[in-house]
Design brief:
binds adenosine-5'-diphosphate; single chain
Length: about 375
C-alpha cells in the first residue's frame, strides 16, 4: 500500500487543528502542533513534504516558523494561513522564497485541499528533478572517468609504436620500407595528438583552477620546443613585454599556447615564400595579452564564428591533419580562467588570435 504523505500543521487555535485533522487524516498522515516549540520537535523527527503554519501565533509567527524550517528541510513546500491584514508579510515571504503558497483565513476545506494537492505536486517534481540531477552527475562522472582511462590506455601503446618507428629510422636495410614507416609515423602522431587533446579536454573540465606564479617565457619557450618550431622553415618572432609577475593557471595557459601556436604552424600557406609567425605577449599587473599572428591560409569570414565549436573544421583545413577539437578546448580553458579570445582573419593573408587573461596577482595578493 502506498504510504500516506506526511503533513505538518501548526496553529495556536486548537479547534483549527482538530478540524484540519478530521478533514485530512484519511488522505494524509497529519501531524499537528499548537506552538512553534512542538512544531520544531516534530520537524526533528520527521521529513514533511508539506508544512503549513498559521501566521498569527504568539511568540513565533507563521512566517518565522516556516523560515526556520527551511534550514533543515529545504525541500519541503511551505504554506501560510493568514488574514487579509497580513498581505504585506505574505508578499515579502513569497518574494524571499520562504513560502510557496498562502491561504486566507478562515480557510475553506476545498481551497485548502487544492492548495495541499498543489504543494504535493510541487514537492514531487522538485524531488524528481533532484534525483535526475544526481543521476546525471553520476553518469557524467562515469563518462569522464571512462574517457580518461581510455585516453591513457590508448596513449601508452601509441607512444611505444612511435618509439619503435623511430628505431627503424636508424636500422640498415629498411630503405625501401622507409616511406611506409613515415606514413605510419605521421598517422600515429596525429592519433596521439588527438588522444592528448581528449585528455586536455577531460582535465580542463575536471580540475579546479590553479593560481600560481607562472614563468611565462619558460612556458612559451617550452611549448615552442615541444612543437619543434626551430626545425620548421618559419620566420618566428617572440616579443615579451612584462612589467609584472603573472599569476594564473599554468596548465590551462599551456593548453592555450600549444593549440594556438601549433595551429599557426599547421595552417601556413605552402605558396608563401616567407612563412611568418609573430607572438606578442604583454603582461601588466592587471592582465596578460597574447597575440598570435600568422601569414598562413587564413579563415573565411563565414567560418569565424564557428571555429570554436567542437569538431568544427573548415573546408580549407581538411587537407591538413586535425580534429577540430583544439580551439574548443582553448575557448573552454580561457572561460575557466575568466578571460576572452577573439580572432581576426583574412583568407590568403593570415590570422590573428588575441587572448586576454586576468592577472590573478591583483585579486590574490
Ligand atoms: P584542428 O584540429 O582542425 O586544427 P582546431 O579546433 O584547432 O582544430 O581549429 C578549428 C579550425 O579553425 C581548423 O580546422 C581551421 O580550419 C581553423 N583554424 C584554426 N587556426 C587557424 C589558423 N591559424 N589559420 C587558419 N585556420 C585556422
Amino acid at each position: 500500500m502506498k504510504e500516506k504523505v506526511k503533513i505538518l500543521y501548526i496553529d495556536d487555535e486548537k479547534q483549527n487543528l482538530t478540524s484540519f485533522k478530521s478533514n485530512f487524516k484519511t488522505e494524509y498522515n497529519v501531524f499537528t502542533a499548537n506552538n512553534a516549540a512542538d512544531g520544531f520537535k516534530l520537524l526533528m523527527e520527521h521529513e514533511f513534504p508539506v508544512i503549513i503554519a498559521d501566521q498569527r501565533m504568539p511568540l513565533v509567527s507563521g512566517v518565522e516558523f516556516l523560515e526556520q524550517s527551511m534550514i533543515d528541510h529545504p525541500d519541503s513546500i511551505r504554506l501560510l494561513i493568514t488574514g487579509y491584514s497580513d498581505i504585506n508579510t505574505v508578499v515579502e515571504a513569497i518574494n524571499r522564497g520562504q513560502i510557496s503558497k498562502y491561504i486566507q483565513k478562515p480557510w475553506d476545506i476545498e481551497k485548502l485541499s487544492m492548495a495541499i494537492d498543489h504543494c504535493i505536486t510541487l514537492y514531487n517534481s522538485k524531488s524528481e528533478l533532484k534525483q535526475k540531477n544526481i543521476e546525471l552527475q553520476v553518469a557524467n562522472e562515469e563518462l569522464n572517468k571512462f574517457i580518461y582511462s581510455i585516453s591513457h590506455d590508448i596513449r601508452s601503446p601509441l607512444t611505444s609504436i612511435l618509439g619503435i618507428i623511430n628505431l627503424t629510422q636508424i636500422m640498415p636495410g629498411l630503405n625501401e620500407a622507409k616511406p611506409y614507416f613515415d606514413m605510419i609515423n605521421e598517422r600515429v602522431t596525429h592519433l596521439d595528438s588527438f588522444v592528448k587533446k581528449l585528455i586536455d579536454y577531460y582535465k580542463n573540465n575536471r580540475s579546479e583552477e590553479i593560481n600560481e606564479l607562472i614563468d611565462i617565457e619558460k612556458l612559451i619557450k617550452g611549448t615552442m620546443s615541444f612543437l619543434n618550431i626551430e626545425e620548421k622553415n618559419i620566420d618566428f618572432k617572440l616579443n615579451i613585454m612584462q612589467t609584472s609577475s603573472f599569476y594564473g593557471d599554468p596548465y590551462r595557459l599551456g593548453i592555450v599556447f600549444e593549440n594556438l601556436i601549433s595551429n599557426s604552424v599547421k595552417y601556413q600557406d605552402p605558396e608563401k615564400t616567407k612563412p611568418t609567425i609573430e607572438i606578442d605577449l604583454n603582461i601588466s599587473p592587471q592582465k596578460l595579452e597574447l597575440k598570435i599572428s600568422d601569414n598562413g591560409i587564413g579563415i573565411e569570414e563565414k567560418h569565424l564564428n564557428s571555429i570554436f565549436k567542437l569538431f568544427y573544421r573548415t573546408e580549407d583545413s581538411l587537407k591538413k591533419t586535425g580534429s577540430g577539437i583544439g580551439l574548443y578546448i582553448v575557448k573552454e580553458a580561457i572561460k575557466h580562467m575568466g578571460g576572452q579570445i577573439t580572432v581576426l582573419s583574412e583568407i590568403n593573408l593570415g590570422t590573428v588570435f588575441t587572448v586576454i587573461l586576468p592577472n590573478k596577482l591583483i585579486n590574490e595578493k
